[in-house]
Amino acid sequence: MKPKASTLAWLVVPGLLVGGGTLQAAPKVELQQLATFDGDPIGIANAADGSDRLFIILQDGRIMIYSRGVVLPDPFLDISDRVSCCGEQGLLGLAFHPEYAQNGQFYVDYTDVNGDTHVSRFLVTNDPNVADPDSEKPVIAIDQPFSNHNGGQLQFGPDRYLYIGMGDGGSAGDPGNRAQDLGELLGKLLRLDVDHGTRYSIPPSNPFVGVPGARPEIWAYGLRNPWRFSFDRATGDLIIADVGQDNWEEIDFQLASSPGGENYGWRRMEGKSCYNPPQNCNDGTLTLPVIVYPHFHMGDFIGCAVIGGYRYRGPSFPALRGVYFFGDDCTGRLWAAFSQGGSKKVLQISETGLELTSFGEDEAGDQYVTEIAGNGLYKLIDAQTP
Question: With respect to CATH, is domain 38-309 assigned 1.10.1740.10?
Fold first, then answer.
């Protein structure tokens, strides 16, 4: 995992993405291995309950706990009997309610035995390390026409609403043009109020409330497969990594002050290029990505599936504050977006050789990475800090 420091001109980063101070030197990071698992780890979450535990999503339907340097032997939750796995299916997302310490509620996103998406609420038992698999309360179910592009990320935003990343339904090229169809929930970022209503209610500020033919759950659209997205805990900005089709990977950006309703372009555009139609695809209404990178560049395979991370806000490595980290599943390359000397840069900081699947934060804001080549959990550390 030797760092590779090469600024790449085809990576584009406007100033909006970089949040926080200016670096005096390019970041140098290492990945410190912490644990391995007996399944594929594809997600990381914390409960914000003061326990300092990390909850690791295993694709087969289990959630494991990493606590005080060890993986606890028994799952926090095991719903493998109701989950389809694997490929792009499985247990895909986890988010703890903002008041989890008081109400014991958490939410998961999984594909059922028929391959359809379910978002459900579960409850912890009297044992803080064990959840009740029989406490499932369905929130929303969405039919999936194909087995791929299921999205799956769950996050509670600063507004305390639950955000759900939905892929375009799969196959290739979005054959049903679902991402652009406001009557469909596929290819969208959804925003739900899970504290009111029988299962959920619609936040009154959602952008398509009252729009004829549009689903009011939609917050943003034009997404192909938003596998991972994150909120900046300091600013509330939203950063979405959207997995591309044949040529381009992209990262989209939304200011915390946005009223929602952005159209991020798919399938009209892939990255900053026209896809379908092949010309004159942008009528000026699309929100273009802030970072793109190609699958190939001058014969070099760069990657084929972007894995979105977080802006670093942790206390352990002050030199990294405000840096946005992301990687690629297919090549294990790791990048940092940051400000230096008045300019905005994206730097490849490591060629890990790992099959990256997700980034996550602990309660303090330090960052972690999962990968499935060796089923490992790693901590992202500043190589220049003793």
Answer: no
